[in-house]
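> forwarded from #structure-qc
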């Protein structure tokens, strides 16, 4: 019922060209070019241009990052408090059982 179909690779037809042979070439070092002494004029615009959309994206991203950090710290604190409470309960139950 389920028979896999094996794809057949079509054979090339016609004439094929052999691959080109690459001849190695020697690398000849040359003298470095003299450094140019031309000074480019200073730009009057800032390197980063902040558009209102970019500022909004940065503020939104920073807010999201702070909120995620606050949630993670809160979860860690909740786990620590739960662990401490369970430890205190275990010690109390152990001491009550030991007295009986």
């Amino acid at each position: 019922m389920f028979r896999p179909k094996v794809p057949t690779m079509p054979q090339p037809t016609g004439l094929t060209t052999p691959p080109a042979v690459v001849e190695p070439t020697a690398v000849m070092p040359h003298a470095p070019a003299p450094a140019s002494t031309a000074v480019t004029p200073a730009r009057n615009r800032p390197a980063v241009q902040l558009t209102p959309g970019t500022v909004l994206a940065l503020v939104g991203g920073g807010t999201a990052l702070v909120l995620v950090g606050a949630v993670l710290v809160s979860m860690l604190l909740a786990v620590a408090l739960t662990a401490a409470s369970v430890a205190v309960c275990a010690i109390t139950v152990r001491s009550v059982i030991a007295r009986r």
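QC bot note: The chain has one helix and no strands. Residues 57 and 63 are 10 Å apart (CA to CA).
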